[in-house]
Structure prediction request, 475 residues.
Amino acid sequence: MKLRIRARLALTFTAILLVVIATLEIGGYVAVRAAVLNVVDRELNTRLGGVEDHIARHVARLGWPKTAGDLAVHPAFQPSLLVIRSGNGDVLMEGSAMAGLPTTVAEGFVTVDGRTDSLRLLSVRHTIHGEVYSLVLGTDLQVQSGLLHYLWLLMLLSMPLVLAMSAGAAYWMSGRALAPIQEMISAARSIDSQRLSQRVPVPHTGDEVQQLAETFNGMLERIEMGFQKMRDFIANASHELRTPVSIVRAAAEIALLHPRPTEASYREALERVLRESERNTLLLENMLELARADSGTDTAQCDWISLNHSLEETCGQVLPLAASKNISLHVNSSGAEPEILADHDQLRRLWLILLDNAIKYTSAGGTVKAAVYMDSQGRAIGEILDTGIGLTKEQAAFIFERFYRADKSRSRAMGGTGLGLSIAREIASIHEADIQVRSNPNVGSRFIVSFPSSRSRPVAHSANADPADRQVVLR
Prediction:
């Protein structure tokens, strides 16, 4: 069973605190012990200096037996903890507390075990009035050992209490820190496809928890928009499919209810069915293409393509359509041919959509122009300009939305599905291009496609051609 984050945080904090406290207590104990021994060592050094001074002042005048007797009764020197030897190792004086202890030690400070408690010894070897003396002076560490023992016991007993209090505080603090996340979990569990408008509470803490809540709400907003687009798409698709199906049904019913059906009446009904079937086929193909674009499976097989050649080739394909409406079709290009990384078929589909749209909404005798050039930033630009009915600002804002029609009755009569410009935008997006529209009512529209990466290839001109510009007029 895995522990909850709150418990793991508390345990981690407690473990780290245990290591820190143990390190500090051990370090503190060692430091206090060293400080206590330092005080004891200074006291020993002072007392031993007094012993040396007493010997130096009295041994020559009184002799050693009298001097030793004076030392034995001097309480300040603690004679019971004093050992004096001659240079050859003979014991000249030995205190009662030092009998039987290893007092033959190297010069300096050392701690040894006494009969009841530890002793701190200071051993020196000095020459006094030509005689070498080995002096060992000790002091009882009973009081100091007791203090250090109580200090160590206090540290050991206080550690569990401190750790328990710290663990409780860590558990409480982690609970307070994770409380907004628990609220977010509860709110998120109540959100489903029918309640996507709900949002998780955002704590105004200015930390990562607030960022998490804001990010989660942003994700919910994008999901809600995606669901809404899907619902709108389904509703619009159902509406678009209902009309041709109703027409097919009506045509079949009229043909069947005709009192005296003739071959002509059947043919007329079948032609209407065929037209609506073709329209439904086009609609379903467009919907399938948009679905592939939404799923990310519609990829482009890109290669370097001349933008001029691609647009001119497509204009040649739509020339009969323009001629049928007596519309002039022009292709203008600058003195350099921009080349772009693009999928040939998809780029052709993009121009077909824009050119078909321009011809469809341009009256007889009008003009459609296609232009290619490079802007000051080195981007390749393709433009389709017409002298058609144009768009208002409100209409232009939604012109690339799926199933949107500026003039619903006219668009349906012309066989439009309302998906062409949406597909054009998706194709531009696949090529990381930007597509915009600029339009005025009763003046015309201008669709601009900007490709981010391009390279320029000079155009070969004849000696009599204008090097600045060329124009191809298709009629």
